[in-house]
Fold this protein.
Amino acid sequence: RNRTGKIRVTDLAESRTRSLSLRRSRHCLRCARQTISRSPPG
């Protein structure tokens, strides 16, 4: 069950990162890619 909780958080974080990445991708696709790679934990 701990894994499910972590997966849920990751899903939310990915959803948020995707929204930001889409918005930033328009400004700088390279910057957005680096941000995703450096995505902070939690």
About this structure: The mean pLDDT is 66. Residues 3 and 9 are 10 Å apart (CA to CA). The chain has one domain: 2-37.
